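ESCALATION

Customer reports they have been waiting on this structure for their group meeting. Please prioritize. Original submission:
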Amino acid sequence: MNRKNTRVGRPCKPYRTTWGEYINGLRKRGDGRWQIVTTGATFVEDDERLAVARFRRWESDHQGLSVPHSGETIAEVQFKQQPNGKYTVRAKKLQSVSEIPEGELWAWFREQLISRPEYAAQQTGIPELSRLADLPRSEPSPTLKSLGKLYQEHSEAKPKQVRQVALFWSRFQQWMAGQDVKTLNQLTPALLAAYGDSEKAIARGKRDGGKEGGSLVYLKHRFNAIKGVFNFARKRGVNATDLRHALDCCAVLEVSKHRRMLAPHPISRADFHTLLGQATDPCMRAFLLVMLNCCMYPSEALALDWGELNLEAATLTTSRNKTKIIRIGVLWRETIEAIELLRPDVPAPHDQPIFMSREATRWSTKTATNQFRRLRKEVGIDHSVKCADFRDGAYTAAIDSGADLTQTKLLAGHATGISDHYTMRKPMMVRNAIMGIYRAYFGENAQG
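Update from on-call: job pushed to the front of the queue and completed.
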């Protein structure tokens, strides 16, 4: 190394390595050479790690410490800790005993691992040490907050789903913050299991003296949202190792498959006609008829487009959003007349919704059910009657009429084993089930 006269002035700042460590007494010049600040000596080294190791070796040599040189072969090295916290190092070849501060000892070990990995592997009996240079550089573990933000800003899900996932994730993040967990690598199966137990207790109403009950389906959505955020980040190329670990931990977030059996609650014939008779709004009248005629839940009826109806043939062909199974139906005369009042003056595109709001957008389930509740209140019907009762009434009436179970399943959108392309061509397959519903709610004078 060449020596230069050092300049007197402002102390040189410690060199900061790419892995975040500060090295006092070393700096990198603009020409790419390394300089020892105290002497002004410079040297050339392309590898930053080796440059730091070389500087530490120089430091050890000039502090009078007998740390073995990189080029020397050592048969055996023995270490013994002294009461003063230092170590005694005995190297057979050197035939000398020196007291070395613990920091310098680890500096020497580090130099060997960086500059002579095969030698370090041979001396320690750990063959993996020789492959340290091939290991990928570790990246910081993502924070739970950053994953939630990533999902909110880049997810292509519907806005309503994004808002719901954000709500679930915020609660998950708050619970974990209470356990002093902020990053993925801090997650453990035990922590996730404790979180799951906490949420289940709330869902069942067992916390704070709450009433027994609660929605386990809602709890399942909550757990799926958490797994969904992890999966979304994984597909975006975020730290795959930590995300795989987090998803493995989420295996404990399971909801019991045991479900409380709910008895069907079909709407009565009297209540149906009371509601239908007082439904002055064309949209509401058609809505009530479609739900009963086609055995649909509110969201399923509101999802219908004009391209799924053939009013001339009095048939319906669509698919159920929940199961993606083709479902078919035959429309009553009353249903067709009600839908005709909603038909636009100009031919509607096939994907235009049948049920439209005043703002010319698809009628939302929330808006439709709120209007149904107002109508129910106006006619004095008990609040226990709900929109879902129309589907229960249709299904029950179809079965009671003696219709084939396969027909009823095709009408309700359940799997039957019949191929979809065949079902789409034969809407009249469910005519007997449809007529059974009509007879139950309109009397024996059914359509021919």
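Sent to customer with the following note: DSSP finds 17 helices and eleven strands in the chain.
Escalation resolved.
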